[in-house]
TrEMBL record:
It comes from the Bacteria. One of its GO terms (biological process) is L-tryptophan catabolic process to kynurenine. This is Tryptophan 2,3-dioxygenase. It comes from Streptomyces spongiae. Coiled coil: none annotated. InterPro entries: Trp/Indoleamine_2_3_dOase-like. GO terms for molecular function: heme binding; metal ion binding. Transmembrane segments: none annotated.
Amino acid sequence: MAQYVLATRAVGRHYLDPELRDRMAELYVDLRDVLYASDTVIGRRERRVLRFAELVLQSEWKLADLSGAGRSLDVLSVLSGPRGKRYQPYANVRLLNQILGTRHRSSDASIEHHCRQVLRFLLRSWLEYERRSAAGTESWGWQRPPSAGEMDERLERLSALSRETAAWPATPPAHDSPPARWDGYVGTAGHGDILEYLVNLPQTQHHEENAFLRVIHLTEVTTSGILARTLSARTWLEQGRLREAGRCLQRAARLAQLQLDIMRVLRRTMSVENFLGFRKETGDASAVQMTSSQALNIHLLGVHPNKVEALESVPENAFLLFHLNDRFQPLRSLLQDVPQGTEDGAAVLSAARDLDEALYAWRRLHLGLAHRYLPKEAPGSGGTSGAPYLSGFYQDRLFDPSGCLFPHPVPVSAPSLDGQHVRARSVFSPLN
Ligand code: HEM
């Protein structure tokens, strides 16, 4: 394990020794067979270690290059099979979800608690990384660092965010070096080490890819917290419990504001040249494949007609199209029935407005990134038209600028999913 982490940090994941990656991918296939065979008898502790190993190994299996050069047919036949899109293994999203507890049917309070722990840890870890880089004591991600001016602004912004989260619950700290064995990562005591050593594995040695992945992780975590609270707010509204719904939306709005501030760090401190320097190596990994974000937008606004094709083309997200049915009520529909004249009703609408405002500002900023960082008319790495795709729905929101609720988007009928393998799974982290 330690060798894997150190090797990946030394050369970048894209340049890992193909033999090491093949070995990990083969191990994943073996492990999967053992873990899910009905006659496997293993103890609880062993099962936890193996389940954890499965998360790490699966991402190597998904990223393995099967183009065939230099591989025996035996190896290729073991490694082949439908592997899904690259964003999730690239960003190690399943590992993050494991720490957030989104796969355990956890309560919204528990998920938010873990989100806050992880956000505090990741912000601090990023700040420390940039401080070491600025001081010249960090060798990880040494290529194409930001300019001195960009670094100063980044340190300032990260210090402010880290101060803002300093009183949030803490994660057990990481050790000074990566644990040498799998079981060193298992259990709550291993969370710090997972976050420090296993979640962030850039493809290259480019400093800014390292920073970019950190923004992705922070966005994943804030999105999970916002989604957890939005789902609860919907349930409370269905039961007419306005006060509770208002509190959930308020908490979601605070996380959405933080998410916006995190994206501003990228926008303000990463140059276009440095972004384009590592973009090729990330391949077709794109956050259009980000399940939590797609789910959040659907639970807030419903399925937008302009996104059906993008959802349909990502096997991990196609199940979300089940929300295209008359019985599903996104938050936008439920808000229509909230009485404006009562104190609790006004609090719900005010919190929903704050949430809507922060998320809308994020979408505007993000669309600006697509215009600024990508060559003109370049398609997105996720296979969409890029900026035009994002323009097609970024203005769809809960409230108009005068604070009135927007009506539903144009309804669309569910597309035919004939022949596609779509599994109905729970709303949260279906891939875990
Ligand atoms: C310079 C940085 C970035 C650029 C140029 C960019 C560009 C794009 C583009 C062109 C798309 C359309 C889908 C496709 O790839 O074909 C997209 C989708 C998306 N991006 Fe980014 N992006 C950037 C950073 C980020 C970051 C750091 C996150 C954080 C997770 C993020 C989250 C998303 C999400 C959630 C979508 C899906 C939008 C939707 O379908 O609702 N992006 N991005």
